[in-house]
Automatic annotation (TrEMBL):
Keyword Lipid metabolism among UniProt keywords: no
Domain NodB homology span(s) in chain numbering: 56-230
Gene3D superfamilies: Glycoside hydrolase/deacetylase (3.20.20.370)
Entry-linked SUPFAM superfamilies: Glycoside hydrolase/deacetylase
Signal peptide from the UniProt entry: 1-20
Name of the molecule in the record: Polysaccharide deacetylase family protein
Alphabetical keyword list: Hydrolase, Metal-binding, Signal
A family per Pfam: Polysacc_deac_1
Length: 238
């Protein structure tokens, strides 16, 4: 009888041990499930700041180019950082430096229309405003094979109603650090970093060394704050 009792006790202890192991296993699986998220390849990734963080989009835009001295310097910096930007080109500059425009297009940057001569389109007749826009779009199409779909009017002043403008979307900006009149790249960087918010469009130029340095500094600073740089269409439509 004593041996039977001992065996019964052993069996009961074994059963309780197995039950405890099952409970611990279930609890552990639940905790793992609560603290992981699936990814496309079937693996799991721990939840936390990196998993939950969603990149904040912002668009860098450059007016008045291409510039023969500084645009390619900017393109080199963008390529190194794997960043895409939007360039609003002057028609006369595009015609003068087609190889730079080809490079922009080849490297995946968006190209927009900034008039032919950088004139205030609002002060022109419909005919003259349409000519400024049309000549620039044709110059860009001749180089890239594509007509620009976005227009940034100089000074932010939209043209009088004309057929050319109706077929394009006007893009202005949210942050303007006035880099064109400020020779200090650090000042421009500080202005942008303090003012920028998610989905903002930043206005810059690619016609001076300080502006190029500021643009690349802005990228480096904002990426550390969780921003990613996209073309303007991704800010507008997504």
């Amino acid at each position: 009888m004593k041996k039977a009792a001992k065996w019964l006790l052993c069996i009961n202890l074994l059963a309780w041990t197995l039950l405890a192991v099952q409970v611990l296993t279930v609890n552990m699986e639940q905790r793992v499930a609560q603290n992981t998220v699936p990814v496309q390849n079937g693996d799991v990734q721990a939840k936390g700041e990196d998993a939950d963080a969603v990149k904040k989009k912002v668009a860098l835009t450059f007016d008045d180019g291409p510039d023969p001295d500084y645009t390619e310097m900017l393109l080199d910096g963008l390529k190194k950082r794997n960043v895409k930007a939007t360039f609003f080109l002057l028609g006369k500059q595009a015609e003068a430096y087609p190889d730079i425009v080809k490079r922009m297009h080849k490297e995946g940057h968006m190209i927009g229309n900034h008039s032919y001569d950088h004139v205030n389109l609002a002060n022109l007749s419909k005919t003259d405003a349409a000519k400024q826009i049309r000549m620039t779009s044709e110059a860009i199409h001749k180089i890239t094979g594509e007509y620009p779909q976005y227009l940034r009017p100089p000074f932010g002043n939209e043209p009088p109603e004309c057929s050319c403008a109706k077929n394009m979307m006007t893009v202005l900006w949210d942050v303007d650090p006035l880099d064109w009149c400020c020779g200090s790249s650090s000042t421009v960087i500080e202005k942008v970093v303090k003012a920028v918010e998610e989905d903002d469009i930043i206005l810059l130029h690619d016609a001076s060394e300080s502006s190029v340095e500021a643009a690349l500094g802005i990228i480096d600073a904002l990426e550390k704050q969780g921003y990613e740089f996209v073309t303007v269409d991704e800010v507008i439509f997504e």
